[in-house]
Amino acid sequence: MRYSIDSSGCVVAKGKWPRGKLAALKESIHKWEFIVKVLKAGRPRFQNYTDSCALCALYYDFVCEGCPVATKARDFECRSTPWKRRPTLLQAQAELKFLKSLLPDKK
Prior knowledge:
Blueprint: E1 2-5, E2 11-14, H1 21-40, H2 54-59, H3 68-73, H4 89-101
Antiparallel strand pairs: 1-2
Helix pairs in contact: 1-4
């Protein structure tokens, strides 16, 4: 996937969505790496919606059943995670760290 911010200030994902849980998690991490990079570059405000999230592409249905984020957070729609529609750098870094913590151990 390739991420950008469109003229209306929304994060946009272009490409093919991954089909599996691990691939979608890794792609979501990639998206949040992009968001952290954008915020570090000084872009203070933009919109971040579910339509640019690989995990949401697989699991978003108002209960998010099966999503590793929903399973870990024990809720839906990322309500108790650092995710924000308009993240600050600290919130974006926290979300990135949270998503990376969901990766399986490399044993």
